[in-house]
Amino acid sequence: MLQPRKPLHSGLPPGPKGTLIGGAAHKFGDGLLDFFLETARTFGPLASARIGPKRFFLASDPALIEQVLVRDAKHYKKHFGLRAFIPALGNGLVSSEGAYWRSQRKLIQPTFIPARVRSYAPVMTAITEDALKKWSDGDGLNINNEFSRLTSQIALKTLFDLVDDGDRQHFTDTLKLAFDIMTERLRRVLKAPLWLPTPENIRLKRAIADLDRTMLGFIAAGRARKEPGDDLLSRLLAAKREDGSHMSDRELRDETMTLYLAGHETTALALTWTWVLLSRHPEVEDKLVAEWARVLRGRTPELEDMPNLPYTHAVLSESMRLYPPVYVIGREATADLELGGYRVKRGYTILMSQWVNHRDPTYFPDPERFHPERWEDNLAKRIPKFAYYPFGGGPRICVGNAFALMEAAIILAAVGQRFRFRIDDNAELGFKPQITLMPVAPIPVTLKAR
Ligand code: HEM
User: Fold this and answer.
1) Could you give the CA distance from residue 183 to residue 410 in angstroms, rounded to a whole number?
2) Ligand 1 atom 12: the closest Cα is on which residue?
3) 3 state DSSP class of 141
4) Quick check: 8 pLDDT over 60?
5) pLDDT in tens, 84-112
6) What is the reported pLDDT for 163?
7) Which residues of 20-42 are buried (b: 16+ CB within 10 A; e: fewer)?
8) Domains of the chain by range and CATH?
9) Which residue's CA lies nearest to atom 17 of ligand 1?
10) Element containing residue 58 per DSSP (H, E)
11) What are the tens digits of pLDDT across the range 118-173?
């Protein structure tokens, strides 16, 4: 058995008392963010609790997080919560493990090198321009739905060169149905195994079969193209393993579905929460508008503009600090290990929450304050790596982080130069923490032309 370091303590780290059967499972609902924060603040850098029969530790010290995600990474796998989504994700980069994951990451990573990512900037700009043509002063819309539609269009165009909005709508509706069922199942301590033909399982299987058909249709169309396009699928179709083999249709289905799922909602959420924060901080919005006027003069930003928009990037960093689209990462120990002087038994889960770390006053004084200026003078370089980690870290760091940052900056500046959003007075602005930090309800706004 692997035993990198010897634990100092014989028992468990301190932690909240849960119910006898469910442990802290009842906290894994809408109050989850407060539960994480309270647990870390009350019990310190390493706290212990149960979800049903499963033991988990909440690690909130950057050094402990680095140990899990970097130093001991090979002794951990993704946590059991993710498995609830395997029916849709398949065995793509987010969920695969071990040698298979390593070989797939090696194959896919080159399609995300900066030069490749930069080539998607014109698509992002064009699709954003197109969407903006449909908006006018006084229109009412839901920002999270609009940003989700926009990033979904960009994802489908960059992934598959897909432009047909009918196809996109059907695909996204089916996906939503499947995700609602999978999220519901994840929340239940007791659930029927997937092979049992319960009405819910049947609905899920039908939705997944429908998604598979759609994805395999996109892949067949990609293979049938005479000239490979600039889309990611074309690049993945061309990618060769060391032994000269290419990905099968099933592997391509899982990887492209994973990239779509991992990539578009997260970026849409970053934009949504940024606008919610801006609506409460007109002084920040004014500074942004001044930067755009100086650098862009009304143009939709292009790749070359990126280095000249430091305040835009600071606003996005600060927004993802306070409202990180991925607010928790989990890992399951595959061996008996040590963490923070305690024994981590094989099968234990370590949770690490960006929501908690990003609010640590040691690194972010006055942590609840939305203050993009704190990122000046290279704050990111002055704090420990895992004080701020919206894209995770270590070998499994987000493969699409450069893509996401460029996309978010382009959309933010393009939209913000033309419109202001006035959030309707009756909007509910709470969080519904699912796999990502969703809003509790659609966020209605009225557009004001600038
Ligand atoms: C603001 C937007 C985004 C955020 C906040 C985000 C966040 C994250 C985080 C925290 C992880 C690590 C999860 C873990 O360690 O368990 C991750 C992994 C991943 N992300 Fe992102 N992501 C974003 C955008 C994207 C985009 C645009 C793509 C693709 C185009 C993408 C594709 C992936 C993939 C494939 C992985 C799994 C990597 C692996 O395990 O090898 N993400 N993301």
Assistant:
1) 31
2) 392
3) strand
4) yes
5) 788 888 999 999 999 999 999 999 999 89
6) 67
7) eebbbbebbeeebbebbbebbee
8) 25-449 (1.10.630.10)
9) 398
10) strand 54-59
11) 889 999 999 999 999 999 999 999 999 999 999 999 998 998 887 666 677 888 88
Q: How far is the CA of 426 from the centre of ligand 1 (A)?
A: 33
**Residue pLDDT, tens place only, 229-259:** 888 899 999 998 888 999 999 999 999 999 9
Measured in angstroms, how far is the CA atom of residue 36 from the centroid of ligand 1? 21
Query: What CA dihedral angle connects 110, 113, 118 and 123, to 10 degrees?
Result: 40
Are 318 and 381 a contacting pair, CB within 8 Å? no
93 Cα–ligand 1 center, Å = 9
Q: What is the mean pLDDT of residues 6-15?
A: 84
3-class DSSP state of 231: coil
Residue 236 main-chain phi, psi, to 5 deg:
-70, -35
Nearest atom (ligand 1) to Cα of 436: 5
Torsion of the alpha carbons at 139, 145, 150 and 154, rounded to the nearest 10: -170
41-50, 131-140, 153-162, 281-290: segment of lowest average pLDDT: 153-162
Q: How far is the CA of 279 from the centre of ligand 1 (A)?
A: 27
Could you give the C-alpha distances from 33 to 28, 270, 322, 374, 427, in angstroms and in order?
A: 9, 17, 12, 23, 20
**At 74, which amino acid appears?**
K
Total residues found in the chain within this entry: 450
Distance 318 CA to ligand 1 centre (A): 18
Say whether pLDDT at 1 is over 50. Answer: no
Residue with the nearest Cα to atom 19 of ligand 1?
A: 398
Instruction: Report which protein residue has its CA nearest ligand 1's atom 16.
Output: 329
Q: Give all strands (DSSP E) within 292-384, no chain letters.
A: 329-333, 337-339, 342-344, 349-352
* Interstrand relation of 54-59 and 349-352 (parallel, antiparallel or unpaired): parallel
Residue list, ligand 1 pocket, CB within 6 Å? 93-94, 105, 258-259, 262-263, 266-267, 270, 325-326, 329, 390-392, 396, 398-400, 403-404
Alpha carbon distance 256, 92 (integer Å): 8
Locus of tokens 């509790």: 440
Q: Which of 118, 271, 398, 399, when mutated, tests ligand 1's pocket best, judged by the most ligand atoms within 8 Å of its CB?
A: 398
Separation of alpha carbons 177 and 182, rounded Å: 9
Provide long-range contacts, Cβ within 8 A and 24+ apart, for 78-84.
78/330, 78/331, 78/332, 79/330, 79/331, 79/332, 79/349, 79/350, 79/351, 80/54, 80/330, 80/332, 80/349, 81/186, 81/330, 81/435, 82/330, 84/182, 84/183, 84/185, 84/186
